[in-house]
């Protein structure tokens, strides 16, 4: 338990780790969402070009 407390800095250290993990997860989610949106837009544009032929 003493190692987790880190000499009374445990709350600060572990909250920083948690915040970093949250930011990384949100960044990953945002990048995937943007990728899906761009991919769908490209698909729509390709279908539009193919239908004009």
Task: Explain the overall architecture.
With 53 residues, the chain is an all-alpha fold. It is built from two helices and no strands.
Overall 3D form = rod-shaped
Order of helices and strands: HH
Q: For the report, how would you describe the main beta sheet?
A: none
Average pLDDT over all residues: 92
In short:
The protein is mainly α. The protein has 2 helices and no strands.
Features:
mainly alpha, 0% strand, rod-shaped
Element layout with pairings:
Layout: H1 2-5, H2 10-52
């Amino acid at each position: 338990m003493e190692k987790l407390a880190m000499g009374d800095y445990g709350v600060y250290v572990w909250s920083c780790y948690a915040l970093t993990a949250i930011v990384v997860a949100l960044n990953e989610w945002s990048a995937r969402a943007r990728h899906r949106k761009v991919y769908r837009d490209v698909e729509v544009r390709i279908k539009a070009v193919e239908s004009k032929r």
